[in-house]
């Protein structure tokens, strides 16, 4: 797909071409939303919202920017709006801000699998978590991450390294020892 | 993953050389984070469905219209359920209606529905069985050969009236060799979307979020107020029905036995239609796919209903369905469509049936061009009309009616094969009865003959004499 040509066609009103963009990005966007909600149906709803917003606003898209970053920014806002409308009195950016026993729905399997990681990632700031997710789990470049989170590339790199340093400091040495003993596959 | 861990560790050391002193711990930490990447379980059906919605919906509405109509109708329980649904729908998901109101027809290859006269008897499939029974009833009873509705019915007393329909219309010629057969589908599987909204509620007793791949098969909501309604939705069938909430209707709750209504209480057709249409309008029930309403008559021909001794409790208005511009009729003579029953006693709408999602597939089938054969079937009153044989000893009274030039319509029918019931609409001719037989109070207003050759074969009809031997 010639992404630029496809975007320009969509801006001209050939919205049928939007399907090409959808095919390219639906999986990473859904994954990103799942990483931030831990709930399949919520991630699906927010994926739908993200793509409908993108389709409806494509004529406002600045084609000098990265489309991927624009889409992620819409998804990022959708998650924040989702949690803030559900809990208007508390400052929640994503599911990581919730306590493990919070009654907001999340998939049981994921909740169990992430129980240990949750403790550590919850202690990070939302921007640190976002960059961690985008770099580690979505394999995005710092340039793309910078556009999504609205920071410079250098700043994004620094936030990432500080997030890792904070995690390293928080995870007790004993845990590392246990992990080290069982961690032969890497 | 090892390569990935190595790369990330080197990247971090490049960013902050002090990490080099803790390389082993760093390797463990990165490894743990990568290992714990959640399984996102992306549903490919969701991907396909969303793609169709995105590309098929020109201006996505923040509300599915599904939420609008019941919200106007339903009381306390509805508020408890629908408002949160509406909130979620409005605040998060631009959506198309749960049940499609706009007619959507997808064309399949030819003969896609298999044989059209298949009825696997004895294997269930209520709709199909009922259709078969109705077909036989329509064929063997009405107004032609006596009311012998099944094998357990009695032998008729007195002469059986046998109709002959003489064609008096324009010379007919059947030129179309192929025509579209339509199959109604329950529509997009939006039951999963409704289930996903329900899963967001804290039900206390159990965490619905812990169950996977759920969908809603049906639900019922009741309006808890005097003369309230009960609204049932079947996702499997793609149908919504509205009935009285019986506990809230004094005339129906069984606490008292009201006196029978006199014939003079019957409202005029205009009043009945006005009540029905107002109800539909008040509840945003679109009539875009239906033609002008007709009131079902109860009195014998030639007698005005107000001259009847007693009035019926309800009168039904049918809004005949149109598919792709063609009118739809039942296998008998009645139009098929949206039925609204009006309570004569309470002067208000009691129920709405046949409110169905308008998603169809269509497939081309060979049509009969044998006009003589069609006229010969029309001459005896339909495909499955039973006429007693002379040797049966049954007395016969022969009467004659006249038929006018037919119109092309779609005939509503079912097939049932391999455990699956299909609701079909088949090209047919509808011959109007232009001259009634002398002295007969009951006779059909029209004769419907399907044009697909395999539906022109007469079924084996159980004769009453055989049944009681």
Oligomer designation: heterodimer
- Gyration radius of chain B, to the nearest Å? 30 Å
Count up the helices of chain A.
10
Given as residue ranges, the uncertain stretches of chain B (5+ residues, pLDDT < 50) are 57-95, 121-153, 460-469
Describe the secondary structure blueprint for this structure.
The complex is a heterodimer of chains A (186) and B (469).
Chain A (H helix, E strand, L loop, with lengths): L2 H9 L6 H20 L2 H17 L10 H20 L21 H6 L1 H7 L4 H12 L4 H8 L3 H18 L2 H10 L4
Helix pairs in contact in A: 2-3, 2-4, 3-4, 4-8, 7-9, 8-9
Chain B lengths: L1 H14 L7 H13 L8 H13 L8 H9 L2 H16 L12 E4 L18 H15 L19 E8 L10 E8 L5 H8 L19 E5 L6 E6 L4 E6 L24 H14 L11 E2 L18 E7 L1 E2 L2 E4 L7 E7 L4 E9 L2 E8 L4 H10 L15 E8 L3 E11 L2 E16 L10 E5 L13 H5 L1
Structure, explained:
The complex is a heterodimer of chains A (186) and B (469). Chain A is mainly α and 186 residues long. Chain A has helices at 3-11, 18-37, 40-56, 67-86, 108-113, 115-121, 126-137, 142-149, 153-170, 173-182. The longest helix of chain A is centred in the first third of the chain and has 20 residues, at 18-37. In chain A, 41% of the residues are buried. Mean pLDDT of chain A is 79; it is low at 177-186. Chain B has 469 residues and is α+β, with helices and mostly antiparallel strands. In chain B, 25% of the residues lie in helices and 25% in strands. Residues 57-95, 121-153 and 460-469 of chain B have low confidence and may be disordered. At the A-B interface, helix 2, helix 3, helix 4, helix 5 and helix 7 of A face helix 1, helix 2, helix 3 and helix 7 of B.
Keywords:
heterodimer; A: 186 residues; 10 helices; B: 469 residues; alpha+beta; 10-stranded mixed β-sheet; 7-stranded antiparallel β-sheet; 17 strands
In short:
By secondary structure, chain A is mainly alpha-helical. Helices cover 68% and strands 0% of the residues of chain A.
């Amino acid at each position: 797909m010639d992404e630029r040509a496809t975007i320009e066609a969509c801006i001209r009103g050939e919205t049928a071409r939007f399907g090409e963009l959808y095919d390219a990005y639906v999986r990473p966007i859904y994954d990103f939303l799942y990483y931030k909600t831990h709930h399949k149906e919520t991630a699906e709803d927010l994926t739908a919202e993200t793509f409908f917003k993108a389709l409806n606003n494509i004529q406002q898209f600045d084609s000098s920017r990265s489309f991927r970053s624009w889409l992620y920014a819409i998804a990022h806002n959708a998650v924040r709006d989702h949690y803030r409308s559900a809990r208007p009195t508390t400052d929640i950016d994503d599911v990581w801000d919730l306590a493990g026993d919070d009654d907001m729905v999340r998939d049981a399997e994921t909740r169990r699998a992430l129980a240990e990681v949750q403790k550590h990632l919850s202690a990070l700031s939302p921007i640190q978590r976002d960059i961690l997710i985008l770099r580690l789990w979505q394999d995005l470049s710092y340039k793309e991450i910078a556009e999504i989170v609205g920071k410079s590339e250098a700043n994004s790199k620094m936030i990432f390294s500080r997030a890792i340093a904070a995690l390293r400091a928080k995870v007790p040495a004993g845990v590392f020892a246990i992990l080290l003993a069982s961690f032969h596959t890497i | 993953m090892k390569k990935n861990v190595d790369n990330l560790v080197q990247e971090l050391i490049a960013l902050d050389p002090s990490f080099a002193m803790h390389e082993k711990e760093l390797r463990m930490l990165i490894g743990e984070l990568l290992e714990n990447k959640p399984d996102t379980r992306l549903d490919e059906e969701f991907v396909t469905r969303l793609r169709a919605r995105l590309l098929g919906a020109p201006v996505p509405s923040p509300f599915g219209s599904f939420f609008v109509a019941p919200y106007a109708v339903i009381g306390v329980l509805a508020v408890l359920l629908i408002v949160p649904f509406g909130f979620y729908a409005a605040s998060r998901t631009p959506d198309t209606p749960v049940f499609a109101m706009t007619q959507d027809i997808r064309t399949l290859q030819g003969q896609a529905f298999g044989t059209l006269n298949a009825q696997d008897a004895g294997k269930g499939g209520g709709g199909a069985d009922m259709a078969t029974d109705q077909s036989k009833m329509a064929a063997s009873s009405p107004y032609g050969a006596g009311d012998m509705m099944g094998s357990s019915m009695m032998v008729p007393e007195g002469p059986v009236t046998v109709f002959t329909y003489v064609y008096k219309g324009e010379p007919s010629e059947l030129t179309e060799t192929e025509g579209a057969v339509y199959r109604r589908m329950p529509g997009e599987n939006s039951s999963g979307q409704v289930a996903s909204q329900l899963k967001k509620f804290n039900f206390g007793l159990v965490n619905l979020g812990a169950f996977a791949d759920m969908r809603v098969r049906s639900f019922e909501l009741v309006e808890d107020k005097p003369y309230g309604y009960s609204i049932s939705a079947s996702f499997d069938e793609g149908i919504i029905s509205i009935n009285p909430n019986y506990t809230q209707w004094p005339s129906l709750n069984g606490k008292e036995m009201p006196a029978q209504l006199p014939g003079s209480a019957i409202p005029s057709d205009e009043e009945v239609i006005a009540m029905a249409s107002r109800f539909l309008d008040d509840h945003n029930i679109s009539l875009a796919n239906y033609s002008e309403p007709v009131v079902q008559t109860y009195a014998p021909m030639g007698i005005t209903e107000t001259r009847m001794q007693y009035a019926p409790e309800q009168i039904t208005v049918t809004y005949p369905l149109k598919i792709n511009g063609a009118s739809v009729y039942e296998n008998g003579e009645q139009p098929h469509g949206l039925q609204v029953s009006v309570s004569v006693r309470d002067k208000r709408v009691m129920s709405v049936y046949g409110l169905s999602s308008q998603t169809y597939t269509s497939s081309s089938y060979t049509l009969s061009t044998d006009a003589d054969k069609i006229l010969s079937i029309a001459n005896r009153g339909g495909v499955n009309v039973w006429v007693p044989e002379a040797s049966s000893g049954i007395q016969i009274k022969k009467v004659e009616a006249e038929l006018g030039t037919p119109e092309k319509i779609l005939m509503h029918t079912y097939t049932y094969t391999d455990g699956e019931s299909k609701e079909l609409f088949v090209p047919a001719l509808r011959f109007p009865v232009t001259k009634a037989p002398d002295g007969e109070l009951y006779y059909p207003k029209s004769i419907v003959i399907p044009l697909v050759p395999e539906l022109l074969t007469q079924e084996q009809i159980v004769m009453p004499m055989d049944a009681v031997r």
